[in-house]
Amino acid sequence: MEEADMKRGRTGRAKLLMLAAPVTACAVCFTSADAFAAAGGSSTQPARQGVSEVRYNLGDEAFPPPDSLGYLGDNELNGAVYYPDDISSGTHPLIMIEHGFWDTCADADASRSLTAAQAALAEDEQSGDTADAAKQEAIIEAASDRLSAWPCAPGVRQIPSYLGYDYLGRDLASRGFVVVSIGANGINSTSDGQADTVYQERAALINAQLRMWRTLSSTGEGPLRGSFVDAGSGRPSPVDFKNHVDLRNVGLVGHSMGGGGVMQEIADSSRATWPEGVSIKAAFALAPTATWDVAPITKTSFAVMWGTCDQVNTGEFFDWNKDDNSAPIAQYTVRGGVHDFYNKQWSPSSGQVGAHDDAVPGSKPGTCESQFPEATAPRTDQKELSEQRQRRITKDYAGAYFADHLLGRTRYEPYLTGEKSFPGTGGVVSTRFDGGVN
Fold first, then answer.
1. With a threshold of 0.85, does the pTM exceed it?
2. H helix intervals, 18-66
3. CA 272, 277, 282: angle at the middle one, nearest 5?
4. What is the CATH number of domain 3-104+156-347+385-434?
């Protein structure tokens, strides 16, 4: 399915809509913690906490789709959990992260075969060699099947896309949140031909994970009891989350098709599917793809971040909902941002199978070709952000967003509405904000 075909335009009354003027480039880049000290807020800036990490895996096919959905294919139930070292003190809001569509298996031989066959096919198409083209297409199909298998073949590691947001998970945990990044490789392996239900399946996976966490936090029981292992040593962890995770104060993060899954989960039509005792207060979507039916989202606050060199983003959720929303919504446009850099596993520096810079190169070194807002708009060179800088910007905005919406730290609001800019953004972020109908 072409996700872009699902776009719809909407017009209506103007409310509080802002376009933030870019700030000038800085000589020294700051973290989000430094931003508020620079703005005179150091006396109230909460101290960061130490962070611990555990993981769990209940099985590669532990989550069968709900029968009512009609989706075919089971998914894993696993997660990486980032939490404050002082987890036993108080109750902490939960933030759940869902990754997007990517290869599932780190089959290096299949990846090399795929790359070689794709190059050969391009030459065949130029020369008109139809016989060899058919041969290369068969190689491409076989290699692609190996890369997208689930579970992976014996001896082949999975590509752990759910670990690609550790930079964000650890940053959010240092602010006092419990962060759970979940795997969706099973869905990635089976989604072909199921575009009409894949986003509901992604939302159903989020609900299944939230249900387990609600049970664990409220009773100390359920599937997650005794399932945690230390991320470093792999040894069983005694961490106790009972009564320390607030399932009535939940935030969601999604990237790419995971962003689409998150937006499906907070759609007005999906709220009735949330597990009893769970309340999702806000969502932050990184380059989300458009959902099948573009269901309205008017009751839950959300923010969307996308890069101007992103070829994949099709979810114009801000424009689709800005006329009807009762909750605040925002869009952050990152000049020179690309799709894959939000996930470390997908980015070149990881050395992971299939990792790459997906930006279209510009006419000069260090630039990428703009891809938004419309396919017919003139494409221009943008200075491409580095992996590290794009992630730092992501941490700044996502961290402030959830501190505001889940912890009630309203001093972050001028940065989220575009009234102020984070030191260190270097003029690359512009903001649109709609406060909603009160």
1. yes
2. 32-38
3. 70
4. 3.40.50.1820
